[in-house]
Amino acid sequence: MNTFSADILEFDALRELVGRYVGSAAGHALLDEIEPRFDADWIRDAHADTVQAIEYMRNTRGDQSAAAARGAVARIRFSDLPDTSRAVSLLRIEGSGLEAMQIRHLSALIDRAGDVRAMLTGVEEKYPRLADVVREFGDLRPLAKELNGKINPDGSLADDASVALHRLRREIEKQQKHIQSSLERFLKAHREDGLLQEEFVTIRNERFVVPIIAGQKRKVDGVIHSASGSGQTLFIEPLETIDLNNELVRLNEEEMREVHRILREMTERLRQHAPEIAAAAKALARLDLLFAKADFAIEFNCSVPALSGSVRRVLLREARHPLLEDILKRQKKSVVPVTLELDEQHRTLLISGPNTGGKTVVMKTIGLLSLMAQAGLPVPAASAEFPLFDRVLADVGDHQSLEQSLSSFSAHIIRVGEMLNEATPDSLVLLDELGRATDPDEGGALGVAVLESFRQSGAFTLASTHLRAMKIWGANTPGVVNASMGFDEATLEPTYQLRTGAPGKSAGLDIASRLGLAPSLIERARANLSGAEREMQRFLSQLHEQLEAASKTEKELQTQLAAVAAREAALEKEWERKYTAKIREVEERSDRLAKEFDEKARQTIEQITQNVEQRKASEHALRKVAKTRREFQESISAEIGVPYRPSSAGPAPLKIAEGVRVRLKGVRQLARVRRVQENGTIEVEAGFLKMKVTRDDIEEVFADDGGLKLPKGVTFTQAPAGPSWDGGYREINVIGKRAEEAIDEVDRFVDNAAMAEVQRIRIVHGHGMGVLKRAVAELLRKSPHVAKFYEATQGEGGAGATIVELRDS
After folding, report:
1. For the residues 226-249, what does the mean pLDDT come to?
2. Could you tell me which residues come within 8 angstroms of residue 152 by beta carbon, excluding any fewer than 6 positions away?
3. Strand order through the sheet with 306-307
């Protein structure tokens, strides 16, 4: 028996849906292994990884510069990742050799793994679980750099794969030209004697030959290698080119031996890092699947489910069946979500309502989402919580079997019997149309007995039914929650909404009427209903009307409460704004009066400070003034009910004079003032650079006390004498450097260029995955020296370089 009913609940189809977002063959292989687990620690770890993957993917969508500011470097893609499973396996076998294309694929793998490792370790503080995945292997990019460029895209070795290979291929080209020249002379000599079938040189059996007419073969000394399909043309190697061809064959054989030697050498080089390569391949496959789950979660508006703790419960808010939602999306329709809650006191949900009303979809939704939760997958719901189920047992659909001579009822009962034997208190049981395919009275009695058995077992149970006996049992049994699928009495159509609190009516006659049966037939059917059945239908209709009215009233009350809360918040905010403005006005008036008081006090004191005794008296007076002023402010503060806050005005700023050091905006190095001109322009000197600035360009002034005292923890290093900048074209190359190292170098380069009044520079960053290019662009956007920047022309490096135009100083 399938413990988790994965086939009935279409878990394989769900895997295929998630598989759309997987990029690599290794990721698909890992996805195929995903299945529900009865392991709480594994499930929680899987969901914790998914949470960080979703956050990362959200931060990589939209503008990449904004994404970088949010903490994500770039989107990681796996769609072009080669399948290296065979090559990785061969590396474990000592003495085995890899083909050129396998080596090329491994080189691409470890190069990509190095980039991904650098990206994720760079954001380790924000995404520690993602960084843990790539910590399982080291940085293999130096190894990839050794192999890069040695194997062409078609799987052949590049000429510069070794010195010997380069020499042999040049000799082969030279020998081929000799042979070509020899055969062209042969063709020219026999052009007029009727010997040649056509005038061209071709290759047969790896030897250069010419085509002649079959009847003329006795006129030529040479070796015949093949004939045309018609037999009219013979391909002959003239005697004078045999030695030349022999030498070419020898060179080709020597080339093959050199290629084989190089491939063996590359294989052994890779085998030295076989465990790390295998770990890198495994980590990339895991990340591929992890980001596929994140993409699926974003696309289907999923949440990461929680596992219940000591208090078990099933809680779903706006849950949707992912396969149904996928189908309806293509039809530009939406799924009606399901919301429900079961707990230890209410473990059984009995769903009734109209045919085609969605009862089966509700049960399949709950069953499939529980499997997804225990397989570490996000679920399409606003929020979800499940207990840890040891079994998910489902009887949904028709199990009639002609091969086993089983009717629908027989197959149904056999399946229910198996589920009764398997169920435990930790199980989830799904029963669709319990007691179907037999007499309604007997089916109802059997259904009640089965549900009672599952209820006593402690399992969470969901069942659907049309049978009146089961509805009555559900309404009168503790721990059973009655629910119904909505039905619009006006349109006679189901609404697919699950409503708890009361059973639903089947509405079979109403639906039959909507589907086109004759009204007279429907009326005869209604007349055949017993009085009790008619009363039951009428009672259920009234009950649902009352529930609908109560629900509407509750929504109106919630809307009114929300409006009142919003109004209260607005009033409180307005009162706070007015109160703050009043306090600010009183404080400003207090400060103004205090300043006037101080000014008058100073004027009075200056009149009496004529000698030493008077100065002592003035100091005493100043202290008295300060005390009086403080008492004055405290009294004002007491009047307005605001704590007294003494003024924190700092010392007056230093004046700009010759010899002092200053800090310029956007320039790291401190400068010394050489001269202050009458027009306000200031000449400064920073290292070997001299420039003219305005007062607005100066950020900070330092006192010249014979030696500059920098803040604690700050050091100053004189910039080295760089190139003789002359305002012309300059460049910096950061290819192969890490992003952090490259950005520091580019930042210093731009500063120096700006101080030297260089107008145009070039930054060479290469192509790669675009990490350096994006990092450089982000720096240039923020730099105060940069007027604009753009991609270089093809003659200047194309997309591998960026041209920067600096502002005029």
Report:
1. 79
2. 158
3. 306-307, 383-386, 313-319, 338-343
